[in-house]
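quick one, 161 residues, struct below
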Amino acid sequence: MNAYMTNGTVDFLKKIEEKYPSIRFHFMSGSVNDVAYYEGNKKLFVAGREYEIIIQTGEIRDKGYIVMNHIPVTDEGRPVFEDNFKKRKHAAEHYDGFQAFRLLKPRKGNTYVVLTQWQSKVSYEQWKNSTDFQKSHVNIKPPAYFADRPFVHTYNMIEKD
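---
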């Protein structure tokens, strides 16, 4: 299964939905940009990003708060990076307000996306300030296989009319 994303204004992104009424799109608004996201096997975006879904938990919902950690990984580091994620305990999945998790491997480029969806920003902040979060991130420093500094974007889901 693949995930696809593209950026644009909300009005532009909504036109994509009109063009493909059988596809379930999710729309997000962030401080940096607005995003259309969908999961499937058909590339629809001309200027979008395509990912392979490596790990998937929960369903992306039309309401919620999205956190996307963008992590550039060297070619040599990809197997180790993916294996580390497959072995980790996913404590967030059992935390109040958790909705969905995706580990997205880029089809082009080197930047993975770790996407989590929460019921609200408050539920995400409660997770981030929890002992479980602290335990899962203790002594974490950027591994040698990071190609560049990771960065985070956050979004609020745009509810459908």
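Residues 5 and 37 are 5 Å apart (CA to CA).
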